[in-house]
């Protein structure tokens, strides 16, 4: 993936009907200058309410490359149906600086953002984990 706004992405709308997204694997991916390399977004759109899509058993493994944003790993899951069993293993992303108005306040460190998500981190990671 090169020069994209979104890399590995699972997205659903706020106020969505009950459904599931399970057993999803993203593996052996190379990224170059990607804005949002890894993202689960269950609060997409302007509709009210929480997403009712149950996301579980998602694996991000052996993802490498460069990013142009600070929060490279983002899991913004539904308060009503939190994400379960999300695994991030051997992910090495290098922040390459502001390319298009996305400056880093972390001094170039890659970071993770987790909201309503049960995330397991393992292997070699190039960024700080989500706060507990």
Automatic annotation (TrEMBL):
Any idea where this protein resides? Answer: Secreted, Cell wall
Q: Which Pfam families match?
A: Glyco_hydro_28 (PF00295)
| Family membership noted in the UniProt record | Belongs to the glycosyl hydrolase 28 family.
Which Gene Ontology BP terms does the record give?
carbohydrate metabolic process; cell wall organization
Molecular functions (GO terms): polygalacturonase activity
Superkingdom, natural source: Eukaryota
Q: What organism is recorded for this protein? A: Brassica napus
Any idea which UniProt keywords this protein has? Cell wall, Cell wall biogenesis/degradation, Glycosidase, Hydrolase, Secreted
Traced from the root, the source organism's taxonomic lineage reads: Eukaryota, Viridiplantae, Streptophyta, Embryophyta, Tracheophyta
| Name the UniProt record assigns to this protein | BnaC03g58640D protein
InterPro entries given in the database record:
Glyco_hydro_28 (IPR000743), Pectin_lyas_fold (IPR012334), Pectin_lyase_fold/virulence (IPR011050)
């Amino acid at each position: 993936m090169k020069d994209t706004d979104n890399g590995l992405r699972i997205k659903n709308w706020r106020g969505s009907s009950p459904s599931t997204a399970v057993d999803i694997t993203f593996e052996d991916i190379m990224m170059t200058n990607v804005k949002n390399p890894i993202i689960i977004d269950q609060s997409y759109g302007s509709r009210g309410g929480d997403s009712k899509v149950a996301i579980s058993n998602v694996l991000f493994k052996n993802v490498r490359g460069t990013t142009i944003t600070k929060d490279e790993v983002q899991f913004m899951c539904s308060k009503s149906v939190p994400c379960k069993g999300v695994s991030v293993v051997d992910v090495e992303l290098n922040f390459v600086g502001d390319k298009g108005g996305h400056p880093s306040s972390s001094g170039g460190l890659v970071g993770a953002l987790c909201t309503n998500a049960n995330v397991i981190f393992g292997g070699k990671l190039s960024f700080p984990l989500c706060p507990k």
